[in-house]
Amino acid sequence: MTGCVAGSKSLSDFDVLLHIADDELVIGWRDSEWTGIAPVLEEDVAFSSIAQNEIGHARALYQLLSDDADALAFDREPAEYRCSPLVELRFVPDWARTIARRVLYEAVDELRLERLKSSPDEAVAGLAAKIDREEAYHRMHAEMWRERLRDEPRFQEALDQLWPYAVAMAAPDERDELSRRFKRKIPSNSLLLGKEHGNHADGWPALWEEMTMVRRSIPGAAW
Amino acid sequence: MVAAAQVWAALAEVPDPEIPVISVVDLGVVRAVRVEDDRVHVEFTPTFLGCPALETMRAQMAEKVEELGAEVDVEVVLDDSWTTDRITPEGREKLRAAGFAPPAPREAQAPKLVQLQSAVFRCPYCGSTETKLENIFGPTPCRSIRYCTSCRQPFEQFKAI
Known about the structure:
heterodimer, A: mainly alpha, Ferritin, 67% helix, disordered N terminus, B: alpha/beta, GMP Synthetase, Chain A, domain 3, 4-stranded mixed beta sheet, 3-stranded mixed beta sheet, 7 strands, elongated
């Protein structure tokens, strides 16, 4: 994999950006699973558009990290992906958990973009500012649904279930802020175990198979 | 040798693939043109990063400049320098005439839901501000759907970014 790296980023910057790129690619993939089957037409449009944006962000981040963004996105083995288990979980046709994930994901994403926007690396800071402008619309969508489902028990159960995944996805020094925003306690370390990025959820191998299927079908082909 | 003004004029003939009433120059996505001998360098800033029209725009811009007899490279600049404020006054008028409400000015802070739900946006058909947000998302990443309660016409609103 090191052969793909453009070379100018230190390893830790590279890891952080790859983590975010993989998260965006995979949540984009999961959100796109609602295209055509969302509970209302407006949400067909919304989820398709959100998914398209997230995958666009992944592409731009991979381009920052590599001269061959497609190779970085699709030519790795499943274990080499750095995404968070939160984004790998498959929820179709469960709308409550899908919305709970969107709400939690956007909150964690906002915190990390805020940090990247002040990166000393101009290319990173510039791209983070661009991504953040677009994510503002995803946050509005999440906020709207959070308000709409506030008194719905299934939504609250979904938030309870996914909260440890969201905390594990956040960097350790972002967790207090996340806890404050959701008025929820940080779970014990044993509940976070296996949920940090680089660990994988049960649905991941099947998603990887599907996501890379066409590319693997004819290695080296130009599409 | 090609002059920068000729390059700008050529680029002004490249339509936005999804809204062909306006050109890439009207849209403000051409950030800079540099000419060095017979080599032209164009800096292009994407609207939305997930926009599927990016590659088409880039290829069409390169083709137009090559017609001037110059070698060209179109560099995609992935930063925050494109904003809907860069849509030219002519571009905004062309959008309005085609039934798209132009974007509100960009503010320092990201827009909030409550702003989109307010009735300040003007219907491009009848001019009324009695309009409401139907969907934050529309047929492309850069547009929202609104509804005019005066003339009962749905319309597309450019997102401020």
